[in-house]
Amino acid sequence: MKYYFSILLMLINCFISCDKAEENNPCQPETTISTWKVNKEIKVDFNSEFNRNDYSIIEGNKLLFEYNHSGAQCDHFIDDEWGEKLIFHIEISQTKFEYNENDILLTNCFYQQYGAWVNHNKYEIKNGILKGEKISDSTWEITVNIYTIPLFEDEEPKNIQFKTIFTESN
């Protein structure tokens, strides 16, 4: 009987320890940060080795918009971080815009996932709608419903949709 009682106590201790470990390692909730900057732009270079575009953010004369959505992250889980970015630029003089289908190419828009279990490729955007309006000196309201261009034969386009407020970043 002592043997079973000892095993029962060990099991209870394990369950209690697990609960305490979770309390000591809380999860960070998912977040979305949407910002815009002045005098930046996206440079697009074609990479002939991999047959796709490479994107870099440089100093320039455009308004750069960056949407960054990060999934929940828990310290007691290894490699659970995940997120996605959508970045595009428009002419600096615009206060309202709407790009449809192939016109989206004018924004040099690209989409990228990041985290331990994703491929980190930067996807060109070609189809859908990208529209926005400046609603104050420091904020824009942006609506997105677009599709990525697959990089690989067996890959499906990804649909990215959101409507959010972008705030100016220094």
Task: Write structural notes for this entry.
The protein is mostly beta strands and 170 residues long. It has one domain (27-168). 14% of the residues lie in helices and 55% in strands. The chain has one helix and ten strands. It has one helix at 2-24, and strands spanning 27-28, 31-47, 52-70, 73-74, 82-91, 96-100, 110-115, 122-134, 139-148, 159-168. The strands form two sheets. The protein has a seven-stranded mixed β-barrel with strand order 2-3-5-7-8-9-10. Strand 7 and strand 8 form a beta hairpin. The chain is globular. The N and C termini lie far apart (69 Å).
Show the helix and strand layout:
Elements: H1 2-24, E1 27-28, E2 31-47, E3 52-70, E4 73-74, E5 82-91, E6 96-100, E7 110-115, E8 122-134, E9 139-148, E10 159-168
Parallel strand pairs: 2-10
Antiparallel strand pairs: 1-4, 2-3, 3-5, 5-7, 6-8, 7-8, 8-9, 9-10
Organism: Aestuariibaculum sediminum
Keywords: Signal
Signal peptide: 1-21
Class of secondary structure makeup: mainly beta
Provide the spatial order of strands within the biggest beta sheet.
2-3-5-7-8-9-10
What composes the largest sheet?
7 strands, mixed, barrel
The percentage of residues in β strands lies in: over 45%
Helicity, in percent? 10-25%
| Rg from alpha-carbon coordinates | 22 Å
Sequence of secondary-structure elements: HEEEEEEEEEE
Write a brief structural summary.
The relative contact order is 0.17.
